[in-house]
Amino acid sequence: xxxxxxxxxxxxxxxxxxxxxxxxxxxxxxxxxxxxxxxxxxxxxxxxxxxxxxxxxxxxxxxxxxxxxxxxxxxxxxxxxxxxxxxxxxxxxxxxxxxxxxxxxxxxxxxxxxxxxxxxxxxxxxxxxxxxxxxxxxxxxxxxxxxxxxxxxxxxxxxxxxxxxxxxxxxxxxxxxxxxxxxxxxxxxxxxxxxxxxxxxxxxxxxxxxxx
Length: 212
What we know:
By secondary structure, the protein is an all-alpha fold. It has 2 domains: 4-21 and 136-211, Endonuclease Iii, domain 2 (Orthogonal Bundle); 30-131, Orthogonal Bundle (Endonuclease III, domain 1), CATH 1.10.340. Helix content is 58%, strand content 0%. It contains 12 helices and no strands. It is elongated, with a radius of gyration of 18 Å. The model has no long low-confidence stretch (mean pLDDT 95).
């Protein structure tokens, strides 16, 4: 396991590589972001942005999503994986926002995860990006990179990865570190064909040592 000092050094190197790391999901406000993150499950941000470019022109408020039949919303997001379930969750979520939250997206994790289709990762993204609340959302990139670099254990669950990262990283860096891990994993330390030969974190990488 890496020391806190070493983890900060790793984050500094990632920031040198990706100084503009930030949320790449297109959104105009916290409600758009919530919808976009829900759609992004098991889907690329690139495809989500392609779909929401038109979706957000058609729908702006929770009530907009409830004015159309479920079948129409399904057609609007059909190119996204699990679109039927996601369309159903979107309409249920919007109904709950209207009835329980006065058309507003709640700011706390406890309230966010009450919404249909919203799990801990989605809640953490919304808290971090929309409300600037310290949180580390563990997606496939964050989990893969943190394990390859030995910051977390290979056998750790997603929740254990999040908890370990929260221990190792100062709270004021949680939001930024989330984006740095994602950019590093998405564009450099890829699941397949990672750029190991051109990596300034190779000395810290368990994955490279295993390959050798």
